[in-house]
Design a protein that fits this description.
Elements: H1 2-8, H2 15-41, H3 49-78, H4 87-109, H5 114-123, H6 125-142, H7 146-152, H8 154-160, H9 163-177, H10 183-198, H11 200-219
Helix pairs in contact: 3-4, 3-9, 3-10, 4-6, 5-6, 6-9, 7-8, 9-10
């Protein structure tokens, strides 16, 4: 009987498992950074290495963002509440790749020409929505520490719900940026929509609360 009860006991992630998962995330991320460096200096990005670097870092940011938002559903489905502790690490890597993506565009493509960068954002819608997504990820990264989380209280969750906006806009940014071969960005957009649908109830509550907050502020006497 004791053996049977032991077999039927469900596996639960322990703190050491979470630690090793984080180590694995760091190791894989460093591997992809190494691949980026090797590809850059060995001509692995083909005839247009700048575009190659931008696409590599952009897709890495998207992939990591998707993984970040998959953690909670997987944790609920597998009844592994402690799994959410790896979500912050993945989120930070998503911003890390987004930062590299922006940096490669600003430095390699536009040579830090700030007036030109402003014009490009105004004239090209895909850059505008990419900038919005990047700013959202920046704010989420800056407020990801527990100290700030406690300071913001209930407002912290309201702020971090904006990740859903970044999730939707990021693949659109990718789709609008390509001139041909839209299959891959469309797949990314479908995955993003699936992740949003998975959270439709939470998304509805957040949008309703956001609408109420806006109405309250606009109806306040000046």
């Amino acid at each position: 009987m004791a053996n049977t009860s032991t077999k039927n006991r469900k596996f639960k992630l322990k703190p050491q498992h979470i630690t090793w998962l984080k180590v694995l995330i760091h190791a894989i991320s460093l591997l992809f950074v190494a691949i980026l460096i090797i590809q850059t200096f060995n001509g692995g990005f083909g005839a247009d290495p700048v575009k190659g670097i931008e696409h590599y870092t952009g897709k890495a940011a998207l992939n990591t963002l998707f993984l970040t938002l998959l953690i909670s559903p997987i944790a609920r489905w597998g009844k592994q509440a402690t799994l959410v502790k790896v979500r912050r690490v993945l989120g930070l890597y998503s911003f890390f790749w987004a930062l590299l993506h922006l940096s490669s565009y600003v430095s390699l493509d536009l040579s830090f020409d700030w007036p030109l960068i402003g014009e490009e954002i105004i004239q090209r819608p895909y850059l505008a929505i990419g900038a919005i997504s990047w700013i959202i990820l920046l704010l989420l990264t800056l407020t990801s520490m527990q100290k700030i989380q406690r300071k913001l209280g209930a407002h912290w969750q309201q702020l971090h719900n904006w990740v859903y906006v970044a999730l939707f806009l990021s693949p659109i940014h990718y789709l609008w940026s390509v001139k041909s071969g839209i299959t891959e960005p469309v797949i990314y957009l479908i995955i993003a929509c699936a992740l949003l649908y998975w959270r439709k109830d939470k998304l509805k509550r957040w949008l309703s609360q956001l609408g109420n907050n806006i109405n309250q502020k606009t109806s306040m006497p000046s």
